[in-house]
Write a structure and sequence with these properties.
Elements: E1 2-9, E2 15-23, H1 40-47, E3 55-60, E4 63-64, H2 70-75, H3 91-97, H4 104-113, H5 117-122, H6 140-148
Antiparallel strand pairs: 1-2, 1-3, 3-4
Length: 149
């Protein structure tokens, strides 16, 4: 992912990003840290083309994202919002929500990839644990992992 000399402002607001450049190598894990309103979420929105920059370029694998179809671009990127949506029921039910026909092996693989299996295995009822309304019985990090799965 490459952001090159990005300038962006929301309509009728002052500029959010001014001459921002950032290169993220393939396979890298990056955390964007900054104060509220500093543009972290805006960078993600530019990458997913919810907005286009005023100036500069956003590239994915060397391709300008503006030349990609929204379907192919968004199909290649997984996004977990800061505000996760989980449903009352078990951990298993929530993983299956995204793909109800998934096999047991696929459910386990999704949790493994999301690095959720360690906390799931530690819960007294494991996969059958009732997470409560919006996952209130889980920590914030556990909710994020479950949403990723």
């Amino acid at each position: 992912i490459s952001f090159d000399s990005i300038q962006f402002s929301y309509p009728e607001r002052e500029s959010v990003l001014n001459d921002i450049s950032l290169d993220i190598p393939a396979g890298a894990t990056v955390g964007l840290v900054g104060s509220t309103g500093s543009g972290k979420t805006t960078l993600v929105r530019l990458l997913l083309r919810f907005h286009d920059p005023i100036n500069g370029s956003v590239k994915l694998d060397g391709h300008e994202v503006s030349t990609l179809t929204l379907s192919s671009l968004r199909g290649a990127i997984g996004l977990v919002s800061q505000n996760t949506t989980l449903f009352p029921g078990s951990i298993r039910d929530n993983v299956l929500y995204g793909r109800p026909d998934a096999s047991e092996e696929e459910v386990l693989e999704a949790a493994r990839i999301a690095e959720a299996t360690s906390f799931i295995d530690e819960l007294p009822l494991g996969w059958n644990t009732d997470i409560g309304e919006e996952g209130h019985r889980l920590s914030g990090g556990q909710r994020q992992r479950l949403a990723i799965a």
